[in-house]
Specification:
Length: 514
Amino acid sequence: MNDTAMSSNDRINQDSINKALWNACDTFRGTISADTYKDFILTMLFLKYISDVWQDHYDGYKADYGDEPELIEEMMKNERFVLPKAASFYALYERRHEPGNGERIDQALHAIEEANGTKLKDAGKSVFQDISFNTDKLGEEKQKNTILRHLLEDFAKPELNLKPSRVGTLDVIGNAYEYLIKNFAASGGQKAGEFYTPPEVSDLIAELLDPQPGDSICDPACGSASLLMKCGSKVRKNHNSKNYALYGQEAIGSTWSLAKMNMFLHGEDNHKIEWGDTIRNPKLLDKNGDLMLFDIVTANPPFSLDKWGHDEAEHDKFSRFRRGVPPKTKGDYAFILHMIETLKPKTGRMGVVVPHGVLFRGSSEGKIRQQLIDENLLDAVIGLPEKLFYGTGIPAAILLFKKNKNDDNVMFIDASRDFKAGKNQNLLTEENIAKIVATYHAGKNVDKYAYVASLNEIKENDYNLNIPRYVDTFEEEEEIDLMAVRGEREQLKAQLTELETEMAKYLEELGYGA
């Protein structure tokens, strides 16, 4: 069971797992859309992983205690996860040629849920509730059975033997899960991009917010939870501590399921992810039924969401919209106001990704923006490059808010020109991220990159936060030496005369003379 006994040839690397998983998607390509089959692939990865962990541990006990099934079964009850025998991936694989693969996989998932109590449930909703392998989306019974047989065979390949004794760390599985989600987001257009924040952007936000041991961290629009977990991993990496708690809420059922599985596969057991619409029905409440408060609140909410819950907002029982009700067709400030209300009074800090319109649009949004600035909650505005996010080419900005600021300045950073260009997608490099974070922490002006504005300056600008009003990136053009240009022109004219004389000579020789 221990890793050191493994020969280096048996060990697996991240790339080969990722490649094998992406190849498994070929089973579905051309039959159903990526947005649909992502749920099947990600759920099967989850099932295969827990089956391999279970088998690995079983084999380990067998090696230690001999062939004592009853004793081993008893010891296996203390595992992080309980796996009923008939629900194992291998039990399903053995019967793959029989009719009814879809039904059997669904039954296995249900049995796993039942055997693991609250681990795969929140407030009565189960992780696999919105995922059914026994669906007409895969075609009629015969075709569906064949597709699912191929899927089981893909995951049974040696490259996808995910036993800890072969794979090593849990990170490999978590990373594979993130790799798949990222690829689905990249290839699935606008809809698929909704549930995923690119890892570099998550990294940047987590660095800026600097989570500390003991922090409670919340993402009220958590998608597949990648941003939330990036904040957790910063505490582990920077402070060698697992003393933090992760909270999230997600409106789309199948995406909530991804977040729950993602948490499990990353070994994040101290979490609470609720299912429901954060604006219409916030679920993260304290024992008195009030909104829970957190040290860190961060999100990449859907940009300018239409039909966000405008009609109910005026009578919101949590008074989240007392500064004003955002416009009916743009929900950006609805998420911002919700997040502000859930910050702890002393330690509360927040990072939110927004489209640029949030910085300067007028009407009700202008009034809300003015109040947030007058209350001295806004700490920084950071402009990002275009084409960073899946499904949209528009550039976005990060707004940082703080509950307990020690001055009334706002830092503006224009990071829109620092990126690595990709074919369809631009990337933030480690250097780009480090530059933004260092500039933010230094809190000083940087020519053509950053500017610290006073509250009075922002007032003079009518509370417009458009970054070019504060960071001047204008490059002066070099002065033109007209005499040099004239000299060059005379030189070119002389060359042209010479060429024309030569050309006339050739034409004459060829009999085309005048």
